[in-house]
Amino acid sequence: MSPQAEFEKIAEDVKKVKTRPTDQELLDLYGLYKQAIVGDVNSDRPVMDIKGKAKWDAWKSRKGMSQDSAMSAYITLAKEVISKYGFLNSFQGENMDNNLSESLPERTFQYQSSLPSLPVPLLETSLSKYLDAVHPFASEEEFKATADIVSKFQAGVGKELHQKLLQRARTKRNWLEEWWLDTAYLEVRIPSQLNVNFAGPGPYLEHCWPPEEGTQLQRTSITIWHTLQYWNLIRTERLHPQKAGKIPLDMDQFRMLFCTCKVPGVKKDTIRNYFKTESEGPCPSHLVVICRGRIFTFDAVCDGQILTPPELFRQLSYVKECCEGEPEGDGVAALTSEERTRWAQAREYLTNIDPHNNTILEIIQSSLFVISLDETKPYSTPENFTNLTLEALTGNPTIRWGDKSYNSLAFADGTFGSTCDHAPYDAMVLVSMCWYLDQQIRVTSGKWKGSDAVRAVPRPEELVFTVDEKVQSDISHAKQQYLESAQDLQIVCYAFTAFGKAAIKQKKLHPDTFVQLAMQLAYQKIYKRPGSCYETAMTRKFYHGRTETMRPCTQEAVNWYKVMVDPTCDADAKRKAMLLAFNKHNKLMGEAQEGQGFDRHLLGLYLIAKEEGLPTPELFMDPLYAKSGGGGNFVLSSSLVGYTTILGAVAPMVHHGYGFFYRIRDDRIVMSISAWKSCHETDAASLFNIFCSCLHEMLHLATTSQL
User: Fold this and answer.
1) pLDDT digit string (tens) for 502-521?
2) Domain named ACB: which ranges (predicted)?
3) pLDDT tens for residues 44-75?
4) Cα dihedral angle (499, 501, 503, 505), rounded to 10 degrees?
5) How far apart are CA 158 and CA 164, in angstroms?
């Protein structure tokens, strides 16, 4: 079949998918289709027609791409869409334009004003859930003492604090928002870069970009271009609002992805966000590139058009040429890895010795994002992302601005990673963008198929701080404390390839719960005791909702472990105990996502007491509160990063704990596990090995029980 015939056939076939593709997929198909049959856009952009503007923009984004290349890219994308959604049994007559017209008026932030307020759970319900959660960690005597404390709290000061919390909730659409930002992030004084930030490996080495020297700048220019397209989608409010089923989710965190930076304060940090949508006004459009401790900037837009990959390549090449064979820069970026109060004091001194230093800081803070040109080669494979993940989380502090909402890390072997400040948004925002990048890079085979023409764009400008001996001493101290901590962090990031989501769902079990219970089983097999565990629950159904704590170490999970290691119990007993643990986990997760968890509620009560100048209630001083994970003391800090190719990593929440992030695909489960080497009780590699054994054990149990 000729390419033209294949193109025409698949253009008809793609209209017959079972499930409507996403708006972005439809727009990508439309833009490629128009570029293939017409060539470059040949009409003016519509003014009032929202759908027409979105379609015109999608077509315009392919400008410079040859018609043959567009046709080839269209065929590849259409095949992926058909594979993803499957065919209808009969063609129902809905074409691409009809699909687009149904929902394109939906704008990125259009549901913000109609989202429900974050609820306050019933006091009695939260305290009952709290008692359930501490039970696995208590002796009978300890549990009775805690139950008495909870009973007194409920009848006394807790009741008063709850009423004050309800009053607060009547005046704020999200009663938790400011408190959570301050308590979890802005008031925290330990260094952010290792202890709070999250990082992760780029997935591109799984397909068209395996490690290859000499590709760094060319590949980086393509990733930057796709990232800028995503920024433009948000800026023009064409990024489709995310939903849980038909329920819209809060999109406010997407405003924080670009042009955002945390700024240190002596007692409390602040977040500065310079992003604006097109309707709100001008938005900064410059990038910052850091290479060998030196900082450069250039505008990513010229004459209203985003720079093309060839133009970006020229800018990056200029930066690299400036730095090669020259001494390293002062490495002022390392200050962002310092303890927060020390960094605040160092920053104040830096701005006092020369006002121009403040101008440079403002340029960095307001930039779209930071590109770090890294000289390391963290060789990784689709089965072993360890080197890449470790380098992303613990790499050179002089080439990352740790307070930026997004640092794109480009390594010398053509692989990629990212590191991000956690304060302005949760990981799922970055996951959404990185999944978009991965799909775009995959569909274009990692190549730029547009014009190679390069406009006369101004060269990057180097940003040179005025420094003196004290600043150099501050930088040296920051690097030393960072490198000591970084060398103490152990990371393993492996793919378990025996099975994945498909096999688990075939057994009618929830894949996330399957992984969580395997983790619980593994921990208890190693330590012969329950491990307090945090799993992230998303509360974006509510206005400015972020997360709630879901505690997977339930009494049902502990009972199941006991049955699993009891040689007198048969497969049926083990299966029944496992299903009880599954059901309890699923119930608690569902409630947490509906704003009915208890940890954030208890935090609110604690903070009300603090604000009112009241003594800390006994409930929060009870040893079982911390032993069960309360107050940020969870031994296992875990999160499902999603069902895509994107993975992240974090440091453990406590010194004797683990960070455990994972992603689940049809045929594999990829996880990153972290531990502190200086804690002789923990070992990330051992936990991974036992965890994999538990996955096999659970699937075998689910299989034999079905016979």
Assistant:
1) 999 999 999 999 999 999 99
2) 3-87
3) 787 767 778 888 889 888 888 888 888 888 99
4) 160
5) 10
CB count within 10 Å of CB 405 equals 27
| Residue for token pair 């780029």 | 202
The residue among 318, 353, 605, 375 whose CA lies nearest residue 469 is 353
Which 8-state DSSP code applies to residue 410?
A: E
CB 401 within 8 A of CB 288: yes
Q: Which residues does 507 contact at the CB level (< 8 Å), separation at least 6?
A: 699, 702, 703, 706
The closest alpha carbon to 421, from 222, 672, 253, 277, belongs to: 253
Give the ranges where 214-333 is alpha helix by DSSP (H). Answer: 216-235, 309-323
In 267-331, alpha helices (H): 309-323
Regarding beta strands 243-244 and 247-248, do their DSSP bridges make them parallel or antiparallel, or are they unpaired? antiparallel
- 658 alpha carbon, distance to own chain's centre: 18
Q: Classify 287 in phi/psi space as left (phi over 0), alpha (psi -120 to 50) or beta.
A: beta
Residue 547 CB neighbours (<10 A):
24
For residues 64 and 40, is the Cβ–Cβ distance under 8 A? yes
Q: What is the CA radius of gyration of the chain?
A: 26
Task: Let me know: does 198 contact 423? Beta carbons within 8 Å.
Answer: no
Q: Give this prediction's pTM.
A: 0.86
Residue 426: predicted pLDDT: 97
332 close to 480: Cβ distance less than 8 angstroms: no
Looking at residue 149, its pLDDT comes to 98
Q: What is the β-pairing status of strands 370-373 and 547-550?
A: unpaired
Instruction: Report the phi/psi class of residue 636: left, alpha or beta, with left for phi > 0 and alpha for psi in -120 to 50.
Output: beta
Strand, helix or coil for residue 287: strand
Structure tokens given for 193: 């870069």
Report the relative pairing of strands 461-463 and 294-299 from DSSP bridges.
Answer: antiparallel
Q: What domains, with CATH codes, occur in the chain?
A: 3-85 (1.20.80.10), 139-171+497-702 (3.30.559.10), 195-240+249-488 (3.30.559.70)
Within the chain, what is the greatest distance between any pair of CA atoms?
79
- Per DSSP, the chain holds a count of helices (H) and strands (E) of 25, 19
Q: What are the phi and psi torsion angles at 606 (to 5°)?
A: -60, -45
The residues annotated with a catalytic role in the active site are 422
| Tokens standing for residue 668 | 């594999």
